[in-house]
Amino acid sequence: MNTVEDNIEQLQMKVAFQEDTIESLNQALIEQQKQIDDLQFSFKKLAAKVSSIEPSNMASEKEEMPPPHY
């Protein structure tokens, strides 16, 4: 009978450890997602700023001249 109780206690400890690990991983995931969101926002803001400062030096397809061998 004692071994059954020991087994149950070990299983309960394992479950508690797994729950703690899952919660830690969940918190890390939440923090990483927030960092990704912040970086995406900053990147979009920076890209808009750069595109407004410096016009593109590439000609549009309509303005592009065909190569001389045509």
TrEMBL record:
Entry-linked Gene3D superfamilies: 1.20.5.300
Entry superkingdom: Bacteria
Keywords assigned: Coiled coil
Q: Which InterPro entries match?
A: SlyX (IPR007236)
Question: Key word Coiled coil present in the record?
Answer: yes
Residue runs in coiled coils: 1-42
PANTHER family, alphabetized: PROTEIN SLYX
What is the recorded name of this protein? Answer: Protein SlyX homolog
Organism field: Paraglaciecola algarum
